[in-house]
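Final report, section 2: Outcomes. Of the targets proposed, DUF5134 domain-containing protein is the one most frequently requested by collaborating groups, and we therefore present its record in full.
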Amino acid sequence: MIAAHGLRWVLTTMLAVVTVVSLMRALRPDGLPATERAAHALHAVMGVAMAVMAWPAGMDVPATPQAVFFALAASWFAAVAVRRARGSRRGRPADAGHPGTHAVLHSVMMGGMAWMLLAMSDGMGSAPSGAEGSGSMHGMPGMAMSGPGGGMSVRLHGPSFGVAVVLLAVFVAMGLWWLSLPLGSARLTPALQELPSAAGPSAPVRRPQETAVLLRAADAGCHGAMALGMAVMLLAAL
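The predicted structure is given below as tokens.
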């Protein structure tokens, strides 16, 4: 999907880091609620799927099962957001972890991933013919594939182009907002206090509140990176 070889490696490296962090958060034995563990696991799966999409070989992976999976994931996040909103209106304490607004954004990301998979697969239903084979590949309406071999890229046209532009703007806004959260948390986090520990009488010990802030910052950074990664992939298809 990404024609630029260097950009593919940059995205793959970034998504690999996001995937590893998400898996660590999902498997971390810190009493995290099952809902949050599932959310981190879904983001790890999405990181892998996005990395595969960035490479030409990803076009050979069946898109429909992936799209169904991410559509179900989007529905699940939407249900989580609705449940948390209802609980908030009824005065019930919120679940530990991300607020309900984050679940809405996650649902948008998963839904956007499902749409992208289907949009890309629609354009690969027919093979090029004649003179078009060496230059561009025209598939279903709204899609064109250009460039030979490793330089192959996907181009969206028609209604798909408009949807991609809207999603691009949404993902850029989401990515910048998520990446701004760690900066705000850093300003609000108190400095480390030097407390007694086994390492020495004045060894710094990170307090639970500070650890929680750092974990939330890591989560926000991962979500922001994924959103901007989606924006880059959509931009490459325009």
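Strands lie at 136-138, 143-146, 153-156.
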